[in-house]
Every structure is written in C-alpha cells, then in structure tokens.
Amino acid sequence: MNWTVIEESIPLFGQGLWLTLKLSFFGIMGAAIIGLLCSFIQYFQIPFLRKLSAAYVELSRNTPLLIQLFFIYYGLPEIGIKIPAQVCGVIGIMFLGGGYMAEGFLGGLHGVPRSQVESGLAIGLNQFQLARYIIFPQGLTLSVPAFAANIIFLIKETSIFTVLAIPELTNTALDLIGMYYHTNEYLLLLVLAYAVILIPLSILLTWLEKKVRYGTFGN
After folding, report:
1. What predicted TM-score, i.e. pTM, was given to this entire model?
2. Separation of alpha carbons 151 and 24, rounded Å
3. pLDDT tens digits, one per residue of 32-48
4. 85 within 8 A of 160, measured Cβ to Cβ
5. Closest Cα partner for 144 from 60, 61, 207, 92?
6. Residue 10 to residue 191: CA distance in whole angstroms
C-alpha cells in the first residue's frame, strides 16, 4: 500500500465526492417530488392520471438505471434532444427514484387508519383538507423508513454514472487505476469516500426515523 499515492489522490476524490453529493441531492429531491405526486394520484385514484402513474412506476422500477441512462444520453439525441451528461445523471436518478419513492409514500398513505379518514369526512372536510390535515402528515411519517432506504439506494446508484464519463467517485477511481495502476490504493479511497457519505447519513436517517416514529421530535 503506497500511502504517498493515497495522499496525493485525496483532492481528486474530494472533487468526485462533492460532485456525487451534488448530483445525488438534486436527483433525490426530484425523485421525492415525483414520488409524492404519483402516490397522491394513486391514493385518491384520479381518473386517467392513475393509470399513467402506475405505468410510470412499473417502468421505472423494472428497468435498470444503466438502460435508462443510455436511452437519455444516447437515444434522445437521435431525435434531436441533446442533454449534458450531468443533467442526464440527475434525470436518471429522478426517473428511477421517483418510482421507488412513489411506492414508499403510497405505503405510508395506506397506513393511515381508515377510521381517521372517515372521521375527517364526517366533520365535513373536503379532499384537500383531508389530505392536508390527516392523510399527508401521518402518511409522510409512516413512509420515513422507506424514504430513508431509498435515499441510501439512490446515492449508491450514482456509481453507474461512470458510463457517461461523469467524474464522480467511481469514475475518478477507474480513471486513476487505468492511468497509474495503483488499484488497491484507489479502491481503498473509493470505499472510504462512500463510507464518509453513507455511514453518517445512515445514522442521521435512523435517528430521524426514531424521532418521527415515536413522536419525540424536539425532546
């Protein structure tokens, strides 16, 4: 193990780590918004949109991210739509993650006791008020475990961005290995970089899940 090589490579891995975090953030935020919209459409069974939402969820969850990225980056230019590699990566995470987020949020919404929904209807709440005051707050709380798991999953999926030559962590490691052949050193840095992202995030999300689940926020 050449520690000099490791020390010299830390700045490059730092850049890759920052890019991974940035793309993950925008992709996950977009996926969460898509997931929320799809879950509400399916929960309230909005005509026509419900079928489109269900078709999207099935397509996104049952096709690999690699194929989705190839279609966006290499397929769309055939019809005149050219998108930068990093934007393609974010769109890919949004498309894939939106389907998983939708299922997670929908499970949380269905977890709200039917008696509470009926009570809301009994006191005259309309569909918007029902969603805002009863279904959404409780359903979102119940979906936190699935949401947390999807965040970790989608961050790890950014490693596939290497096929688009985006200089995130995995691509940085592979490029350096190809140029200098210090495989062990670069793979060690790659593992440590992902650990720096995922371990603290996992601890934070586990804490958040417990706080939300037991209603001890602020204690």
Report:
1. 0.90
2. 9
3. 999 999 999 999 888 88
4. no
5. 207
6. 13
